[in-house]
Amino acid sequence: MTSDVTPPPEADVTPRTHADVTARLAELAGGYDRSGAFPAESIRAVHEAGLLTATVGERYGGPGARVRDTARILHTLGRGDPSVALITAMTLNTHAREAVQPLWPEELYARVLKESQGRPVLVNHARVEPDLGSPARGGLPATVARRTADGWAISGHKRFVTGADGLDWFLVWASTDEPHARVGTFLVPGGSPGIEITARWDQLGLRASGSHDVAFRDVEVPYEHVVGLGPYGPASEQDNRAGASLHLPLAALYLGVARAAQAFFHTFAHERVPANLGHPVARTERFRRTAGEIEVLLTTAEQLVLGGATRVDGDDSSYTPEQALGARVLADRHAVRAVELAVRLLGNPGLARGNPLERHFRDIQCAPVHAPQEDISLLAIGTKALDL
Predict the structure, then answer these.
(1) What per-residue confidence (pLDDT) applies to 3?
(2) Distance between CA atoms of 160 and 164, rounded to whole angstroms?
């Protein structure tokens, strides 16, 4: 599938920041955070900039952005609104995987690309379940794909499906009802009968990400709308070591949040002039020392993440999956710590509702939550280090 596919909007994936997109997302972020509504206008801005399809493969006429460019895009969007950046990340990851190893039915993926020319087309996995938890910890999904005369009927309950309200495609991880169960990812159109949001996302941070609980009740899909279908076993488990192309951009996203918090911290430091001081608090030793610590935390984390992404793009065989996991662990720690330092120094003003820093502080708490979580990552790193 090459010449007969009309490419999606072309993205500018050069290292320079997309200041206009970031500014627009930042302008809208507070309202979406308060309402928890799906950030449709912000997603539209990302689409119009061509960033939602930046990772579409060159074989399909796309920009073919790889890991470093993806990390830079998500870093930029994370500065504006991390909820929007996370929704974007899931679609970018889908296109990136398809660019490396085509798995979707050819005609179906061509349709996705064609529709992406005129509007945002969002795709995300539905994997986490109430009883199973995150697939990163192993286990067989309770969601079942029942064989029918025309295809499959999907039934089950998924949690934390980011962007659920606006998804065009749910990639539902399920097991078959066959005597010897197989597992795979079933491609379910978002408007299908039988899909119901059963619990609304109401969390501390990333409130506009719309990571709702979703029920699938005998949702029918054609027989060929499944990828990776095979026997359940180690090969079908989520490989926590192999996801550098997602781990590093995700870490960059939250470093973008921390940079937004830093920017507010700097503005406050320059504008705050206590009557008893007579000059901006930015000139005090206390603020300068904290500003230095924040800068060191973020700069070193960005070097680690973007440097790792460059090595992945260069097919550097010496760069291991454990190094990518470690980069994300440290980047998340640094981002959380940097925002915490800014809030602690500002005190009450930093925690005032309606203050961007207060929102950044809540959003950054979501960084370590994504699978694989820190304990699983450290287990994989330690197992490799001990050569077990």
Answers:
(1) 41
(2) 9
pLDDT digits (tens, 9 = 90+) for 150-202: 999 999 999 999 999 999 999 999 999 999 999 999 999 999 999 999 999 99
Pair 164, 122: CB distance under 8 Å:
no
CATH fold of 19-120: Butyryl-Coa Dehydrogenase, subunit A; domain 1 (1.10.540)
* Identity of the amino acid at 295: E
Residue among 175, 194, 209, 169 at smallest CA distance from 38? 209
Residue 234 banded pLDDT, cuts 50, 70, 90: low
Q: Say if pTM beats, i.e. exceeds, 0.90.
A: yes
Lookup: tokens for 276:
């008893």
Domain 244-385 fold is Butyryl-CoA Dehydrogenase, subunit A; domain 3 (1.20.140)
Label the pairing between strands 212-222 and 151-161.
antiparallel
Number of neighbours of residue 365 by Cβ within 10 angstroms: 16
pLDDT at 193: 98
Sequence ranges of the chain with CATH classification 1.10.540.10: 19-120
Of 195, 200, 224, give the one whose Cα is nearest residue 212: 200
What SS3 state is found at 364? Answer: helix
Report CA Rg, the chain.
Answer: 22
Query: Exposed/middle/buried for 226, CB within 10 Å: 0-12, 13-18, 19+?
Result: buried
How far is residue 195's CA from residue 255's CA, in Å, rounded to a whole number?
A: 34
- Beta bridge partners, 155, equal 144
With 0-12 CB in 10 A as exposed, 13-18 as middle and 19+ as buried, what is 156? Answer: buried
Top CATH class of 125-232 equals mainly beta
Long-range contacts at 181-185 (CB < 8 A, ≥ 24 apart): 181/140, 181/232, 182/229, 182/230, 182/231, 182/232, 183/140, 183/141, 183/228, 183/229, 183/230, 183/231, 183/232, 183/236, 184/145, 184/226, 184/227, 184/228, 184/229, 184/230, 185/125, 185/226, 185/227, 185/228
Q: How many Å apart are CA 225 and CA 309, to the nearest integer? A: 32
What's the CA gap between 196 and 176, in Å, rounded? 21
- What lies within 8 Å, CB to CB, of 232 at 6+ separation is 140, 175, 181, 182, 183
pLDDT of residue 245: 83
